[in-house]
Amino acid sequence: MPMYQSRLRIMCAVVILLILVTIIPATSVIGKPLAQTGSPTIVISEFRTRGPNGGNDEFIELYNRSSVTTVDVGSWEVWGSNSSGTTSNRLTITAGTILGPGCRYLLTNSSTSGGPYSGSTPGDQTYATGITDNGGIAVCSGPCSTLANIVDQVGMSAGSAYKEGTTLTPMSVSQDQSFERLPLHGDPTSVNTQDTDDNGIDFFFNSGISNPENMASSCTPSAVNLASLGATSNGAASAILLLAVGLATTIPAGALLLRRRRR
């Protein structure tokens, strides 16, 4: 009987989890926006369109936000747009380039006219034609002229061909600076992973500082963290989910449940 009770509890926990998966919309995590509607892997995690040297002191950092998936980004393309929607290829990523979970790839502008990139972290690959301050950037699994190839994009004006939701304010001062992607739900263990498909929500501005990283930098795959869910309007659902997880993970099959029978 005790072993039966243990197994019954685990079965109940599994059923509860299945019910929650069915009734909780895919667009939320227990009452909070999922913020995972964008690319499941490669995103533009940080960039700038000008720096201390001028308008070509640029970099574009790509990040694999997945916690489990390795991505071959070799032969992917990065394109730029101006504020009128004119687009062109800035570079094609070197064939055979592999990004593991949480790893980054840094692209830097090599032009000496208003440049080059002045950061201390060296680029993994360079390009020579800059991104206009009020333009946009797209990273694509093939030519960006085929819209279905666009994996992630960011824009600084309504006229840019590349943008998601609210656009960012164009940079205008030549200083150390960057736009950097936010962590998911403010959880510091999920660095640069927020992707709601709205640039204005997903990025914040670094004034006087930038934090580019390259392939030699430590990979920082995001971690699943229940604490990042926080308090939500669906408090009951949260409690049930945590109870189910607790039952399923803390009571091993075959555990003895000894109880005193009341007479």
Written description of the protein model:
This protein has 263 residues and is an alpha+beta fold. The protein folds into 2 domains: 1-31 and 235-263; 42-207, no CATH class. The protein is built from 3 helices and 14 strands. The protein has helices at 2-23, 199-202, 235-250; strands at 28-29, 32-33, 42-48, 59-64, 71-72, 77-81, 87-92, 98-99, 104-109, 125-127, 136-140, 150-155, 177-181, 203-207. The strands form 4 sheets. A 6-stranded mixed beta sheet has the order 10-9-4-3-13-14. Helix 1 runs antiparallel to helix 3. It starts with a helix and ends in a 13-residue tail after the last helix. Residues 20-36 and 224-263 have low confidence and may be disordered.
Topology:
Elements (H helix, E strand, L loop, with lengths): L1 H22 L4 E2 L2 E2 L8 E7 L10 E6 L6 E2 L4 E5 L5 E6 L5 E2 L4 E6 L15 E3 L8 E5 L9 E6 L21 E5 L17 H4 E5 L27 H16 L13
Parallel strand pairs: 9-10
Antiparallel strand pairs: 1-2, 3-4, 3-13, 4-9, 5-8, 6-7, 6-11, 11-12, 13-14
Structural class: alpha+beta
**How many strands, what sense, and barrel or not for the largest sheet?**
6 strands, mixed
CA radius of gyration: 23 Å
**Low-pLDDT regions:** 20-36, 224-263
In what range is the share of β-strand residues? 15-25%
Order of helices and strands: HEEEEEEEEEEEEEHEH
For the termini, the CA-CA separation is 18 Å
Mean pLDDT: 80
Percent of residues in helical segments? 10-25%
So what's the oligomer here? single chain
DSSP strand tally: 14
- Count of folded domains: 2
Choose one word for the global shape: globular
Q: How many distinct helices?
A: 3
